[in-house]
């Protein structure tokens, strides 16, 4: 009798537990925020712009609003760090660009390019003469090659299907009459099918060699994955005539990830993966071979061969030849870098890299061009002889140096053109304008002995973009134009290479970016893109600066909600993302503009303004340390210090009451949010999107942390909010894409963090978005995130009285319903 009663009680308890579990793990339907927010989300997007190589046409790439989740739900192959669509043999994901048009800069006339309906456009590339663009046209089951004549506005299909777009698929030959294309070879056979019964176990082995691999996702898991990836990644190179569409096959099929014709069009530089593939690293670290083909498909030379790159130290580079590319200013000459420190940044040495060059037919010995004190990051060649600006970077000091090097005569001493802390935005000289040289290659333009530099122009009052003229001989700078007034205007490109005519993107807080043509001191507006949400024009915004306790300057853009009146105290949302700096001076620099258009789209935190919240957006949370190896040792202290200053400033300026404050962020900002809830009582609630919370799951470094878990276990422990989940006594909403493929932010990070807070009687809600990755792209997902976020803050932050009770007396989990 007792046993029967006991069994009955057990069943009853089990049923009760199942009922609770069902509620806790319910599959909710997608929710909608208020209709006015839905209307803003669905508002049309402005197109992307691209200036033609000969500077007489402006291409507009028209974008689609958010796709439905059903597009994200298409079958996906998660292989070698990639997400692929086996139906099309390209990348998985919804289309973005859906139409093309072109503006004639001489007349201002806009011509639409006629294309099939319900298709997507990708891989758009200009012809060398700027009269045509080639692109990939995607349908539900095929990727085709098209070319558009911009003079007539007509487009033609060259190849209806069979493009292999797993990697870069299309580039122009220098003659402008042919395209180098990656095709799916007919000889590859049917797609491999995964057997129901495996052949055997998956085995890996280490042999005593240090191999510190970051936490990657979507890696190959077994031989069946490797076979499918090999099938998808196999490409056949072909030269396609743009008049006839005829394709001439070049060489044999291979696992090709890159192909680049030489400047004179006589050779093709090929990068191809080699088997066996690795289960530990993504495709970019697979064994590979770099070789040169002639146009008959014959292999001329093997330039480099690399084993699997799982040995590269954190922040290091591969051994041997790397960054192999054509010298843009030479008919057929390759350049590359080689590490002098074994690729290990921990090695103390006076010189880290050497730079080499070798001419076709690659039978002579390579020539050493220069050696660099720090890591070499490539060269941007100019139109003057064989000169180029070579860049080196010191990861410890964050100092970048740019040297003008003569590749034709290595005996000529390089000249220093730039030296600064990479994070010193005030000293940023900008980027040089480019032109096409005799080979159709993009090089730095130097008309009449001057370069023309454009940049964001960061200042203590906010960004003021500029156009400068810089002497090629002395590097002396003359300012030609700078943005002024209550607007933000930045240079798109030069229409005349002497700087007398140029295109800009102009915007102000209530006007979206539009294109202007400046000529002879006057301007003409070429586009008229409408404000997608004029109902929000009354939002007030201000770029503010203030100081934290240790003297480091902070900044934030403050937005006040619709209908705000002077003296109102409203609930505040702090949106931030921590960054590391070597010194307080660069950490305190102002970045951004008070005059940019207040675009509200996607899951932007600016949507909180529609619900009565003030927003402190891009509130700086600098982590300052002169030694980058130990900068994270004071991460928590500096994070809390910044948060205290931010909340205090909202009170000082009168729009916040210091009580109704929420903190929110995405990715590392989510990590920040959880840490601030655990280590301070400054906030009523938090919203953490797509974060990582247990740093022992990323043991070979994260963000700017260079030490491994075994070298600094206390840092990994102290910085992991998972380890302090029992201290989170404010409500936290967690949102994560169920298919997040960002390194380190596995969905399990949020799942285990939710369980930790819940297990310690905290108030927490976890929303896993089907088919979404690190960012959220599906329309239903975006609207659901906004609805959840509004509800969370309306419940816990909006009320005058804290629903959780007084801070000192609050019991974890004692939320009001």
From TrEMBL:
Q: Tell me the InterPro entries matching this sequence.
A: 6-blade_b-propeller_TolB-like, AB_hydrolase_fold, Peptidase_S9_cat
Entry keyword annotation includes Hydrolase:
yes
> What highest taxon heads this organism's lineage?
Bacteria
Indicate the secretion signal residues. 1-26
Where is each Peptidase S9 prolyl oligopeptidase catalytic domain found? 646-797
Q: Which Pfam families match?
A: Peptidase_S9
Phylogenetic classification of the source organism: Bacteria, Pseudomonadati, Pseudomonadota, Alphaproteobacteria, Maricaulales
What keyword terms does UniProt attach to this protein? Hydrolase, Signal
Q: What is this protein called?
A: Prolyl oligopeptidase family serine peptidase
